[in-house]
């Protein structure tokens, strides 16, 4: 098993909002804690994914024995929780392509304190969609950038009243525009193809 890939090249195509990322201290904190509690298998492994949060960020790890671990960690590296992901939940964590979490349904987007956006990396199964819900106000500007790592994806944006702010377009085209309603706006990413697609999505409000 290769050593921990603590510097994964996520290749986030948008330059958008790169400040809202999991810091190296947080990743190192999870790795150090796994080495303490994970026995022989915990001495090496792979960082599967990382997702920034205002409170505790989420880092998913896989040790050399193929056990998947869920680590909640503060940005200064203090680990709040490290636990094993069991059974079918572990299968959901592993994407078929890059080992990133598989998502679907609704996901609430929250920014870190003092930040105006975030970047997430994940995988979407074939013939499914994921809806990112973001509270925003009339007059603010919304930025969305979806970068596919292979395979075609489309996305559309809904106003709080359910009407379309942006009709379905290819993920190759970023969006920036002013909002004219207040409430939950929805960015829906759609995989209409026959294979899972891994992608990076940047969402920001100004």
Named CATH topology of the largest domain: Jelly Rolls
Which band does the percent of strand residues land in? 35-45%
- Sequence of secondary-structure elements: HEEEEHEEEEEEEEEE
Low-confidence stretches: 1-19
How many structural domains does the protein architecture include? 2
The DSSP helix count reads 2
CATH architectural designation of the largest domain: Sandwich
Class of the largest domain, according to the CATH hierarchy? Answer: Mainly Beta
Largest sheet: 5 strands, mixed
For the terminal residues, how far apart are their CA atoms?
43 Å
As a whole number of angstroms, the C-alpha radius of gyration is: 17 Å
With strands numbered from the N-terminus, the spatial order across the biggest sheet is: 5-7-14-9-12
Mean pLDDT: 81
Counting DSSP E segments of at least 2 residues, the number of strands comes to 14
Tell me, briefly, the overall form.
globular
Residues in helices, as a percent range? 10-25%
**Structural class, from helix and strand content?**
mainly beta
Keywords: Signal
Signal peptide: 1-19
């Amino acid at each position: 098993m290769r050593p921990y890939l603590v510097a994964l090249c996520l290749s986030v195509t948008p330059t958008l909002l790169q400040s809202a990322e999991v810091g190296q201290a947080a990743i190192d904190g999870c790795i150090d804690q796994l080495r303490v509690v994970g026995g022989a298998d915990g001495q090496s492994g792979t960082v599967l994914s990382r997702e920034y949060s205002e409170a505790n960020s989420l880092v998913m790890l896989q040790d050399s024995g193929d056990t998947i671990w869920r680590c909640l960690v503060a940005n200064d590296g203090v680990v709040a929780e490290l636990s094993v992901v069991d059974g079918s939940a572990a299968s959901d964590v592993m994407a078929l392509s890059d080992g990133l979490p598989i998502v679907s349904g609704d996901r609430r987007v929250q920014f870190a304190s003092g930040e105006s956006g975030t970047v997430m990396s994940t995988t979407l199964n074939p013939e499914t969609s994921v809806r990112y819900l973001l509270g925003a106000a009339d007059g603010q500007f919304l930025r969305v950038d979806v970068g596919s790592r292979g395979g075609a994806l489309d996305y559309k944006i809904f106003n709080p009243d359910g009407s379309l702010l942006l009709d379905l377009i290819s993920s190759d085209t970023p969006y920036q525009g002013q909002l004219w309603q207040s409430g939950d706006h929805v960015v829906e990413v759609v995989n209409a193809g026959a294979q899972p697609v891994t992608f990076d999505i940047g969402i920001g409000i100004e």
